[in-house]
Amino acid sequence: MTTTQSPQIDSVGDVLARVRDLLPLIKQHSADNERERRVDPAVIEALRDAGAFRLAAPRRHGGLEAGLTSMLELSALIAEADGGTSWVTTLSNIQSWSTCMYPRQTVDEIYADGPDKILCGVVSPGGTARKVDGGYRVTGQWPYASASLHAEWMGGGVWVLDDDGDEEDQAMILLPRSDVRVEDTWYVAGMRASGSNTIVAEDVFVPDHRLISMLPVMSGTYMADHPDSAFYRSAFGPMLVLVLVGPQLGLGRAALDLAVTKAATKTLAYTNIERQAESVAFQLLIADAATKIDTAHLHAYRATADVQRYAEQNVYPDFAARARMRADSAVALRSINSAINTLLDASGAGSFAEVNAMQRIWRDSNVGARHAVMLPQVSMETYGKALLGQRDHITAII
C-alpha cells in the first residue's frame, strides 16, 4: 500500500500513546492472526495510521529516527497484545533502519510517498548478483522473511559474482514487491502470524543504487555518511540483535499479567487453597518470574543505552563493547524464556489449552528466541572470547 498523506505524529510519545489505545484491537485479533498465519489487514492499517512503521524512517520524509530504545519500547508494547504482530512491526522497522544505509537516491525512492512504509529483509546471502550495464542481475531465495505478507519493499543478502562466477563481495539489495514473489513456507510452532515466508527473485534487474557492499556495514565505516543522524550511526550488529529482544520483553510482561490476573479467582487444583494468590508456593513462583522479567529489561535497556551513547559520540564501539551488548541480549532472552516457563509451572496444565493465551505466548517466545541472528550460545561465546582476548570470531554480526 502507498501512503499519500501521513497522520500528524510528531514524536515517539505520540506513536506509543496511539498504539497503546490499539492494544484491545490487536489482542482481539491475536488468535485469528495465528490461525490465519498472518496479521489481520485491519490491525496492520491501524498500526500504520498510528505511526508504528515510521520509527526508523528518515526525518526528511516525515519519519522519527527514534532510536533503538524507542524501537524496543514499541515492540514490547505491541507484544503485550500479540507476539506475531510485534514481530512484523519490529522486523519492518529494523529493515527501515538498515535501508537508510543506502545512497540518498535509494532512500528517497522508497520514502517518496511518506514514512509509513512496511519493509522486510534477510541479511544472509540467499542470492547472487552479476554486474550488467547500470546495475546487477539478481536471482535468489530468502527464507524467514518476516513481514513478507505486508511489505512493499524487500531486502536480501547476495553474493556478488565476477565474470568467472567467483564470489567477489557480499552485499545487500532492495527490491520492490512487484519484482519478487512470496512463497508460502512458514509453517511453524510459534510466531505463526509473522508471515516469515520465502522471497524469490528470478533474474531481476537491480540498479546500482539499490545494492550496497556489506564491508563498510560490518566495519562501521558507514558512520561517516551520517554526520547529522546519530541513529543511523548506530552499530549494525548490536542493532540487528537487540531489536529482536523487544517482542520478548512484551511477551514476558503479558505472561506475568495473565498469571497474576487469573490468580485472584482460580483455585489451586487438588489442594484446599481456594485462590492461587493465597498460596505461598504460587507467590514464590510469581516473584521469581517477575524478577527474571526485570532482569531482562535491565540488560536489554543497558545495551540499547550503550548503542545510542556510542552513536551520539560518533564512535564505533570496539569488539569488547559490542560483544557485551550481545551478551546482554542473551541474558535478556534466557531470562524471559525462563520466566515464562516458571509462570507455566505456576499456572498449571490449563495454560496449554488452545483457548488460553499463555500457551501462544510460550510458543511465540520460544520460536522468536531461536532466531539465528540472536542465538544466546553464539552471543555468550562471543563475549567469552572478548573477555579472554580471543579474536577468532564465529559471527560477523557483532
UniProtKB/TrEMBL annotation:
This is Alkylation response protein AidB-like acyl-CoA dehydrogenase. GO terms for biological process: fatty acid beta-oxidation using acyl-CoA dehydrogenase. Residues 243-374 form the Acyl-CoA dehydrogenase C-terminal domain. The keyword Oxidoreductase applies. Pfam families: Acyl-CoA_dh_2. One of its GO terms (molecular function) is flavin adenine dinucleotide binding. It comes from the Bacteria. One of its GO terms (cellular component) is cytoplasm. Signal peptide: none annotated. PANTHER family: FLAVIN-DEPENDENT MONOOXYGENASE, OXYGENASE SUBUNIT HSAA, MEDIUM-CHAIN SPECIFIC ACYL-COA DEHYDROGENASE, MITOCHONDRIAL-RELATED. Keywords: Oxidoreductase. The keyword Kinase does not apply.
